[in-house]
Amino acid sequence: MSNDDTPTTTPGGILLVADVAKMFGVKPSAVTQWMKHSRREFVGSKPARYAKNPFPAPDGFMYSGKKVPWWRTSRVEEIREWDKRRLTIAHGTGGRRKKPPAGTV
Q1: How far apart are CA 101 and CA 5, in angstroms?
Q2: Which of 75, 78, 80, 102 places its Cα 20 to 30 Å from the Cα of 35?
Q3: Angle 17-24/76-88 helices, nearest 10 degrees?
Q4: Exposed/middle/buried for 71, CB within 10 Å: 0-12, 13-18, 19+?
C-alpha cells in the first residue's frame, strides 16, 4: 500500500488485473470475467451480465507476449464504486465471495 492507502504492487502508479483482484480478495480470473461480461455484445445467447453496469475500462494495455490491461491508481475509488453497484444488483442464487484479509482493501 502506498501512503495514500491506494493498493498497488506494480511500480509506476498503475494497477494490473492481479492488483485489482487483490483489492477484492478474488482471483485474477474473476476480474477478467468481470471485464468480459461488461461488453455490450451478447455472450452466447444472453446479454452480457454487466452490460448495464460495465466494469471500468482499462486506461491502456501493455504487451508482454499478450495483451495486459492496466488502470491508473487514481481510479481505485471508481473501481470500488463499481463493485458496490455490482453487489446491490441481484444476480440470482449462488455463493458469496470471501472477505479479503484485513488490511488489504
Answers
A1: 15
A2: 102
A3: 50
A4: buried
Residue that has been written with the C-alpha cell 509506476 in this structure: 12
Amino acid in the structure at residue 28:
P
pLDDT tens sequence for the chain (105 residues): 444 444 545 667 899 999 999 999 999 999 999 998 887 666 566 767 777 888 999 999 998 888 999 999 999 999 999 998 888 765 554 555 666 677 765
Q: Where are the domains of the chain?
A: 14-87
Nearest-angstrom CA–CA distance, 55 and 32: 10
